[in-house]
Amino acid sequence: MTKQSNGNNAVADEGRAAVSHWLIVAGTLLAVMLALSPTLMLLWPKWSDSHRYSQGVLILLLVVWLVYRQRDAISATPQRPSIPAFVVLAGLLFGWIWAFAANIALGATVLWPLILICAVLSVSGWQTVARILVPVLLLYSAIPVWDVINPLLQSMTTAAVSVILKAIGVPAFIEGNFVQIPAGVFEIAGGCSGIHFFIVALTLATVYGHLNYVRARDSVALLAIAAAMSIAVNWIRVTVVIVAGHLTDMQSYLVQVDHYTFGWVLFVVMLVPFFLIARRLEPDLPAESQHADSPRKFGKSRLAPAGYACVLLALPVLVWARLLTNDTADVAIQLPSIEGWLPVAAEREDWKPQFVDPDGEAQARYSRDGRKLDVYVNWYETQSQGRELIGYYTSLAGKNARVSYDKPAAAIGTITSGEPLEIHEIMADYPTGVRRLIWYHFLVDGESRSKGVETQLRLGLLALVGAEQSGSIAVSTVCEIRDCNEARTLLSEEFPAINRSLIGALPTPGPK
Question: What residues does 442 pair with on adjacent strands?
Answer without folding.
Answer: 449, 472
